[in-house]
Design a protein that fits this description.
Layout: H1 7-19, H2 24-27, E1 31-36, H3 48-61, E2 65-70, H4 76-79, H5 88-105, E3 110-115, H6 120-131, E4 135-139, E5 146-148, E6 151-153, H7 155-163
Parallel strand pairs: 1-2, 1-3, 3-4
Antiparallel strand pairs: 5-6
Helix pairs in contact: 5-6
């Protein structure tokens, strides 16, 4: 283990892991949180769902126990020009607090944080810095354009059309 947990705390955590079918052998591994912003509302976070099973397998092969821990994943584009606009910057701080709280409450030894979007990525990094455990940032890259009636359509196109 990277961090020093007292035996009673580990026993409590492990009892709850056993309740989910995790073996005693696996419960003794370092717990690596797969902290991700995957959700069905934000296309930027959508790809993470596909890579999480491979990450779990790879971390297990390397000696860890990877457990998925989803957190908020907002999209500035969805709330654009709505009252939701005033929540995007505070949402960054919410994400930061979620990462920190998730890591501490779950006794994580390390994290792979997965996010896309300009408020969620810095929020996750801020939370990881506060906890100060080994962390890897994995982004979803750029968002692919959509298609409507055979033509490429992006958020920029809709904003330009609205402005025109």
């Amino acid at each position: 283990m990277i961090r020093n947990w007292n035996e009673e705390s580990l026993d409590h955590r492990n009892a709850l892991l056993y309740a989910m079918g995790i073996s005693g052998e696996d419960a003794r591994r370092p717990v690596i949180g797969l902290v991700n912003s995957w959700n069905e509302m934000n296309p930027g976070h959508f790809p993470f769902r596909e890579v999480i099973p491979l990450m779990k397998e790879t971390i297990h092969e390397a000696g860890g126990l990877a457990l998925e821990l989803p957190i908020s994943g907002i999209c500035d584009g969805i709330c654009s020009n709505t009252p939701g606009d005033r929540y995007t910057l505070p949402a960054r701080d919410l994400v930061s607090s979620e990462v920190e709280t998730t890591a501490e409450l779950n006794m994580l030894e390390g994290m792979v944080v997965m996010a896309t979007c300009d408020k969620v990525v810095p929020g996750m990094i801020m939370g990881a810095l506060r906890v100060d455990i080994p962390t890897v940032m994995f982004t979803g890259g750029y968002m692919l354009p959509g298609e409507h009636h055979g033509k490429m359509l992006t958020l920029t196109h809709t904003k330009q059309a609205y402005a025109a």
